[in-house]
Amino acid sequence: MKTNKSYLKRIRVTKNGKLIARKKGQNHFNAKASGSARRNKRRAVSLALSKAVKRRFLPASGAK
User: Fold this and answer.
1) For residue 26, what are the CA distances in angstroms to 44, 55, 60?
2) Which domains does the chain have, with CATH numbers?
3) Over the stretch 27-51, which tens digit does the pLDDT of each residue have?
């Protein structure tokens, strides 16, 4: 099965196989949010995906 490239572009696979992604909700409507909330959205978050999802979308990406 091939890797889903549109999904892979949104995440980064680290050397140890962890998945890192941007935090959701930072594209628009952020003027109302507090400064600390906006700052926290800039951080990347670690994804915890099930084996079935990894097998389906990221078979050859090196994700563990």
Assistant:
1) 12, 28, 29
2) 5-57 (4.10.410)
3) 999 999 999 999 999 988 888 888 8
